[in-house]
Amino acid sequence: MGTEMIDLLVVSVPVLDLQYPPSSPAIIKACAQAAGFSARTLDLNIELLQLAGTQNEFYQVQYNFENVDTEVHQTSDPITAFFNGSHALIRQWVDHSVALIKAHDPRWLGISVFSYKSHKAVLLLCVELRRHLPDLKIVLGGRGASAYFLGPEHTRFVNKIKSFLGPYPWKNFSETLLHYKLTDKIIQGDGEQAIVDLLNGDQSNLLTGNIRDINLEKLPFVDFDDYDLSAYDYVNEPIIPITGSKGCVRKCTFCDIPVLWPKFKFRSGTHIAEEMIHLYQRHGVKKFYMSDSLVNGSGVAFADFITTLSAHNTQHPGAEIKWVGQYITKSRTTAQDDRYYDMLKASGGEGLTIGVESGSDAVRKHMKKQFTTEDIDWELHQFDQRGIVCVLLFFSSYPTETWEDFLLTVQMFMRYQKYCASGTVYKITLGVPYKHHAQTPLWNMQEEIGLITRKNDGIMWHLTTNPDLTFFERCRRRLILQEVATALRLPMSRNTPELNEIIDSLRLHQQELKDFFPNWKTIQVHEDRHKLLGDSAILMPPEIQQLVHDHVKMNPELADKILNKHSSINDDIQFDSEQYQTLKKMLLEIK
User: Fold this and answer.
1) Per-residue pLDDT tens over the stretch 64-113
2) Which residue among 39, 283, 311, 333 is least crowded, i.e. fewest CB within 10 A of its CB?
3) Omega into 15 within 30° of 0, i.e. cis?
4) Distance between CA atoms of residues 462 and 459, nearest Å
């Protein structure tokens, strides 16, 4: 760190995944430097981990950064005002962060707002920076900058904001901070060129980056030189994130990616492979996380990518590249032949994350996922033959999901247990029940399909043709899926934060939910007839219990194989959770 002022310091803040370094600041730094400006990066999320001392303590304080506490405290201390626990550690973190920023002496501080889960950290940091470094110029950017305060629960946080900062402008997060003069500028959209315009003196309060104007192949390679790459909690080996495309070729009804990036832009597979090889040579890291919405959106570019990496891996034994990323299952074609899957394996592809979402073709068709259960069954068979590892994402209670649709997901879990046992399916996520977000395709068609919603609230919705799917029923289905997965010993990931999110929604909105769903039904429990979970009261109805019991009885070896595979893996894989018991208890106590 030099003594002269630098043009730009870009920081990332809690709450972020610890499994790899954040890429957005590293990309912005590289773009600024390529334009002739001095720039550095700093990961304040890792600083929090190091101050916490242990991962357990980190995850406890992380919850206080994410959750929505509604009690208003009349105080001049932003930590007391906005956080309901871990005050001493949070104070230590923000004081340490301000000191680090001051030591770098930047002309501009760029704060990367990854998602709404970073809002409280950004708010606190900006308040303290205005107190201690009033002349510092601050710019906010990132996907989370354009979301409402704390996402779906933002209305519950408004009174705390009003009490501490004054009248609330009812704008998105970055515009709200601009209203309170806690930031000087906002970058909306893609920041690669916008940050250069800012540093060149653009006077606009709101700078807009448009992906249409960016040639991805002319951008500099991402710059991770400022990061301590040994500080991250990698799963099995170090991994670095890079981006090969922006946007998506699909327009899934529940997703806002097409709104953020209306045009799908990608670079050639050769160019992506060249960046991987460059980063391997610079940092010695052989594994890469593709942060793209999907890696195989362009069939031509993806074929080029796996061909180039396959050749590299063949020609450089001991220096083989591996990669993970978001992958879409497509309708089966003649192009997906043995050569395609052999090349995919040889390219180092593993941990491919696939949004299966549901076991129902009818639900996925409404989602516009554009593949069938037969397609994903066939692709998993191909993966299994070659040892290509994948991660499957699910979520229950899409608005059109009937009980029969839900049962198809249960049956899919049983059918895929063998792939968890073989290691082809590394882990699954159960997600949170569908939350309704503005500007998605489903949002735009809600009147047409009879989806009744309450403004600015992601959980207050119901489909007139599917009235049984109340919020309480959605919670029940999510817990039944967890019971099924636990009985099958399916390796589940992210259970704790997912269940915490549901618990918070139920805790904060219980009476409103009862009013919004006047015909809600009391949740029923059932005896665990076959001791699938060893619990005398479970939510799994007898007919599902029987299905799971019969499957387990016919395949007794699969559960042990799964447990053995995951006994020593450093990951957030769990087979049960205290939060499951908490949410179940809350549901059963609602009268």
Assistant:
1) 898 777 778 889 999 999 998 899 999 999 999 999 999 999 999 999 99
2) 333
3) yes
4) 9
For 510-537, what is each residue's pLDDT tens digit? Answer: 999 999 998 899 999 999 999 999 877 8
Highest mean pLDDT among 45-49, 154-158, 317-321: 45-49
pTM assigned to the model: 0.84
- The full DSSP string for 421-480 is HHTSEEEEE---S----TTSHHHHTHHHHTEEE-TT-SS-EEETT-TT--HHHHHHHHHH
Q: What is the mean pLDDT of the chain?
A: 90
CA atoms within 13 A on the CB side of 534: 2
Measured CA to CA in angstroms, residue 301 lies from 213, 304, 306, 420, 488 at distances of 20, 5, 9, 30, 38
Token pair recorded at residue 258: 């097409």
Torsion angle of alpha carbons 420, 426, 432, 438, nearest 10°?
Answer: -130
Closest CA to 22 of 97, 148, 137, 118: 118
Give dist(CA 127, CA 148) in Å, integer: 18
- Dihedral, CA of residue 564, residue 570, residue 572 and residue 573, to nearest 10: -10
pLDDT of residue 311 exceeding 70, the answer is: yes
- Give the per-residue pLDDT at 2: 47
Interval 53-62 mean pLDDT = 89
Output the CA torsion sign for 432, 435, 440, 441.
Answer: positive
87 vs 28: CA distance, rounded Å: 32
Q: Residues 138-184: pLDDT tens digits?
A: 999 998 898 877 765 667 788 889 999 999 998 889 999 999 999 99
Residue found under tokens 């068609």: 445
Report the C-alpha gap between 510 and 280 in whole angstroms.
51
pLDDT in tens, 398-415: 999 999 999 999 999 999
How far apart CA 363 and CA 346 sit, in angstroms, is 34
561-578: per-residue pLDDT in tens? 999 888 766 666 766 678
How far, in Å, are 358, 555, 565 from residue 423 at the CA level?
21, 16, 7
User: Pick from 55, 136, 48, 162: which is nearest to 97 by CA?
Assistant: 48
Listed in order, strand segments (DSSP E) in 21-171 are 39-43, 106-112, 137-141
> Rounded to 5 degrees, what angle do the CA atoms 44, 45, 49 make?
115
110 closest CA partner among 159, 64, 44, 60: 44
Cα dist. 529→151, 355, 391, 486, 538 in Å?
41, 33, 31, 16, 10
Residues 158/173, Cβ–Cβ less than 8 Å: no
d(CA 71, CA 82): 9
Specify the pLDDT at position 269.
77
Beta bridge partners, 357, equal 394
Alpha-carbon distance of 68 to 222, in angstroms, equals 34
Number of other CB atoms surrounding residue 549 within 10 Å: 15
* Domains in the chain with CATH codes: 6-216 (3.40.50)
Rounded CA gap, 463 and 199, in Å? 48
145 contacts 207 by C-beta, under 8 angstroms: no
Tens-place pLDDT, residues 330-347: 988 877 889 999 999 999
- Tell me the three state secondary structure of residue 507: helix
